[in-house]
Amino acid sequence: MAKPPKTEWDNTCTQVGACALTGAVAFFAGIPDAAVVVNGPLWCSFYARRHLERQCPSLAERFFCSQADNEAVVYGTEACLSETLRLVETQCAPAVLLIINNCSVGLIGDDLAGIARQVDLPCPSVCMDGGGLTGGFWDGYRAAANEYFNQMPLADRTVVEPRTINLLGLSVGYYNADNDRRELQRILALAGYRTLTCPGADSTVLELKELSRAELNIVVHEELGGELARQLETKYGMPYISLLPPYGIEDTLSWVNSISARMQSRPAIALLRQEAERRQREVRTAVMDMERIWGDLWFEQAVVAAPGSVAMGLARALRQEWADVGALTVLAHDALPAISLPQQVDRILDGTSDSKTIQDCLRNLADGLLLGSGSETAFLRQHQVAGTVCRNIALPVYDEIILDGWPFMGLRGATRWQENLWNGFRRGE
Question: How far is CA 253 from the centre of its chain?
Fold first, then answer.
């Protein structure tokens, strides 16, 4: 008789965070004029491409695989990799090329940089060994950002452009990331600041070279951009500030004020505050109307499961602005984050090790609220946990696509979340 499949959380949770190779590819996928070559079998490249392509449709045009077969894995990949690098030359003209071994090919020890030199590529190449990357998506992203800036030097910091910022720690490997980036740039522009670059999130190689001219670096996701910010401070003397991403109206105003306190110039806060007040009036009117009919927006329990900065930022806005919550738990997909726990959160669970506690927490979430990924939603369905309102905030996602351009962050995101949560609460879905 066949054994029933395992359904423990630690069996499911391995699919929440992608591998380190995918994280490394994600950083280069977010550079529009970069190309990627995965040196290894097709299955490994398909995994990375599948994870990133929905958030970054242009990746397909500049993503290549050497398709190393069994013989190449044993005797070396020079022939198949050289052929793939020549194909890159004919099909696209990247400004920089990532060449990365997958785990199995990494055991061979091929000299990737030497093979690239023999092919005589017309662009610089950054070579990495995926087999040497430990950890998950976040470790790979950080390693790739470090390698990029080690091999692609910045312009001297002789000129600093006033009222300019860089947004660090953004990635096409996060759910709804592009819409959030545009909203952050929009609200900063309302306050009179110009975004110079977003490394790994839509800035070109030429734009990244001028990164050092910005007045301030802003770390949006500490688990992705914190290490880079500290390196840039040490090497180029660039000041930085690391804040939880802003998801509510109050958080957005506080976020901009915290940034302004670190800038030399005063912000043009009037336009931003006007929009915030207008949206608060709209929300207040709509919510009061709903409360007269249906009562308060209330959840006995809520779980927010995502990468650490996303989960804590959303959890703070959830309790501070959007809903009444009895017990509020954060599940950090990337282990315990380096950011202090917001006072609005009751407890935080390590998504890489607290398996038994996570299972119990999710099993007891009937008629509660889950802001998470498809993995947590699948667990609820498998265990027939009824009445839970579920909303996607992190990858992997299996049951939803985003095409309308609405952000999760900022002022526009805050009003959208009020709408989203009330409609889900009323419909029980």
Answer: 22
DSSP 58: G
Digit-coded pLDDT (tens) for 113-129? 899 999 988 999 999 98
Q: Are 97 and 36 in contact (CB under 8 A)?
A: yes
Please, which residues bridge with residue 168 across strands?
219
Phi, psi of 336 (to 5 degrees): -75, 120
Structure tokens at 43: 């299955």
pLDDT above 90: residue 289: yes
- Residues in contact with 262: Cβ distance below 8 Å, sequence separation at least 6, in sequence order: 216, 239, 241
Looking at residue 2, its pLDDT comes to 46
Query: Which of 106-110, 121-125, 194-198, 267-271 is predicted least confidently?
Result: 106-110
Backbone angles phi, psi at 304, to 5 degrees: -115, 110
| Crossing angle (nearest 10°) for helices 269-294 and 410-427 | 10
Interatomic CA distance for residues 44 and 65, integer angstroms: 9
Tell me the three state secondary structure of residue 258.
helix
pTM of the full predicted structure?
A: 0.93
Cα separation, 233 vs 242, whole angstroms:
13
Query: At residue 56, what is the residue type?
Result: C
The token duo for 170 is 């953004």
Instruction: Give the helix, strand, coil percentages of the chain, each rounded to 5.
Output: 50, 15, 35
Q: What angle do CA 224, 372, 410 make, to 5 degrees?
A: 60
pLDDT band at 1 (very low <50, low <70, confident <90, very high): very low
- Encode pLDDT of 168-204 as tens digits: 999 999 999 999 999 999 999 999 999 999 999 999 9
**CA dihedral (116, 47, 208, 234) positive or negative:** negative
Tell me phi and psi for residue 201, to 5 degrees. -155, 60
Give the orientation angle of helix 308-317 with respect to helix 222-236, to 10 degrees. Answer: 110
- Do 54 and 401 touch, CB atoms closer than 8 A? yes
DSSP states of 105-122: HHTT---HHHHHHHHT-S
DSSP 8-state class, residue 403: -
Q: Which tokens hold the place of 59?
A: 């990746």
